[in-house]
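Morning. Coffee machine broken again, so started the prediction first thing and wrote up yesterday's gels while waiting. Chain of 322 residues, entered below exactly as on the submission form.
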Amino acid sequence: MTSLRRSFTFFGGKGGTGKTTCSAAYAVKLADDGFDTLLVSTDPAHSLSDIVGTGLDNTIRPIRERLWGIEIDAAEESKRYIGEIQDKMLAIVSPAIVEEIKRQMEIAYTSPGAEEAATFDKFVELMDMVKGADGAKGGRTFDSIVFDTAPTGHTLRLLSLPEILGAWIDSLIAKRRKTLELFGMVGKFEEDMKKRATDDPVIDTLTRRQKQFEKSREYLTGDMSAFFFVLNAEKMPIMETARAVEMLEKFGITVGGVVVNRVIPPDAGEFFAERLKDQEGYLADIERRFGGKNIVRLPLLRSDVRGMEQVEEIAAILGKLE
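Came back before lunch.
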């Protein structure tokens, strides 16, 4: 099982296909094989707690031996993220506009993209906890992190942030430095403001973000990471997965394979006869589209996943992922 050597493994796909179950099962497999593993949910509609039978929240909590879990609270992370920006802004602005800055920060907190930016910061913070990662310099560390991601569109936006915003951050830093140069040329510019601008927290913040993007790009596009899509043998999930695979590969993120979930067994009975015919065609389409990647099939279970015993059964099958 060569995938065990990866530091970061992602499970994603269309909503309702079984991403959470697969990510939990894979994390259990890693832990059972002796790897200290962190299971992370970035899906706003968290369901990891239900699967693993342990109450999870925005802090890392133990699930079982060698396995820990966390459900990222996007709203909480966004509040903390905006608060940090506000504190830095208030350190350099004139007291006359403090209230206006606070009002703008309140607007920013509810603006589109704020939660994704904050989630991304938490995302990289957790990735730094892997042994051998750039940021793993003490504190708790793990051998591997397994991510249970949000439905495809949300995940693609999150993973594409380093590529999309990297150049934008570079531009902001350049403009900020130009502004400070102009301030220095204005004789009447307040001495206090000049002093604050010398050690500019805005540039510090932008530079930190720039380094975060560079680091995450290294994590996501190197040999440390792989993304697995979970889909059902149906038309819409296949098409959505094909588009997502194309986009991730465009950004240099390795797609390790696909997990075809809820495959109806051949002896399912006459009631499923028509569905079996359709499934045969869809499975052939999956082989055609993704044949160059690892494909694992999970059978349709007689009931919903209701505990760790069933998760471990699925983990044994997912051990075939490479």
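Residues 75 and 115 are 6 Å apart (CA to CA). Going to sketch it on the whiteboard this afternoon.
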